[in-house]
Amino acid sequence: MTVTATGVGARIPIASALDPVTLILKLVGDVCNINCYYCFEKRKGGQSDDFDRISIEEVRSALDLMGDRPVAVHLHGGEPLLYGRENMRLLLAELSARDTVTAIQIQTNGVLLDEAWLDLLESSTPAVEIGLSLDGDEQHNSYRVNFADRQTVGQVREAVDLLCRRSLPFGMISVIHDRNVDDPDALFDLVSDIPSLVSLNVVPCYDQGTAPREVPSGNKGLLELIDASDGSVGDSWAVDPQAYVAFLRRFTERWISEGAYRRFNVEPIMSAVRRRRGRAPRMCHYSESKCGHIYTLYPGGRFGSCDELPAANSLLAHDVKKAAATTLDETWATPLGRKQLQVISAPLDECATCSAQSLCGGGCMASRLRMRAVDRAEDYCGYRRAFVFWLDGIMHKLEAQDA
Ligand code: SF4
Ligand code: SF4
């Protein structure tokens, strides 16, 4: 049996001693101040977290476990600003003092962001890079609601204005779901008008077959999402892979033809371009550096691989302080770690004979596991092939024009 990054029996590579890694800090677990319908924390399985904060000792242990690897730290939740300003100040001091920490990013829903928070986030070394979550205008952002089922779009637009007033470069994540997938022009027009935006990630909501851990309280509009055929609740917002390809194509065309690539980066387009050019993609979906390069720490010391994976398949250690006495490689070498690696890596078998492998890079293991569970693995790969071969054709044409 061949053991390569993508052959039959392949395993996701584990970060070698000096490989850069990402450490996601779930500062308050899955606790949030808003109540998005499609929140991926609500459909990952396991119990919802009590309100608890990651301690500085736990962060130290997780960084020790990363060894000498350069670490990009991502501050996540739930909502990471619920960590509180004084706790954040202590955390940023700890991260600033670590030579191995090369970048600090925060992903916030923006509702609590204000001048005082920005002063604090800008004061660390390196300064914290800010990412907001917004899916479009009022209609397209309508899954992102508060606990009274009210839209949050106005508050997020205030955060956008605040960042622009301070000329602070920031990124944005837009989830692509059934309500915005058919209108890529609306999202493109919206983001093109934001002067401080430097990066955008258009993330497909491949929630097929998932269900929230509990029906979000306060979501009165949930009734309209109930699938009448089987009465289930939970994946009505999922995006169809072919619809997402059409979205990506239109977005790419405008991003290139209008020269917007000079102003802001768009993922996954840029990573697909970089892979096509033989350069290292930034995004794990297009890279061999996947779930063995992305780690997550939860309050209470739970430590595992990428937080996109189901809780049961990502756990590597119940107590990061104990795990820190070993090495990252050793956490994967335990019976639990070996089992996780086998489960997470299983979809790579299909890449072994795939004609798109050199352009695609294998996609996201979490999405592929979800799609496999509902017998739609081929739909996922169909989207990957359709996009990377289409992009390859576009790049051939551009290269021919330049020649
Ligand atoms: S689960 Fe997906 S997003 Fe997470 S590291 Fe693996 S490939 Fe990347
Ligand atoms: S299209 Fe599917 S099988 Fe082919 S390389 Fe991509 S993820 Fe693997």
UniProtKB/TrEMBL annotation:
Belongs to the radical SAM superfamily. Anaerobic sulfatase-maturating enzyme family. Its cofactor is [4Fe-4S] cluster. CDD domains: Radical_SAM. Keywords: Iron, Iron-sulfur, Metal-binding, S-adenosyl-L-methionine. This is Radical SAM protein. The keyword Flavoprotein does not apply. SUPFAM superfamilies: Radical SAM enzymes. The keyword Iron applies. It comes from Streptomyces tubbatahanensis. InterPro entries: 4Fe4S-binding_SPASM_dom, Aldolase_TIM, rSAM, rSAM_sf, Sulphatase_maturase_rSAM. Residues 17-248 form the Radical SAM core domain. It comes from the Bacteria. It holds the Pfam family Radical_SAM.
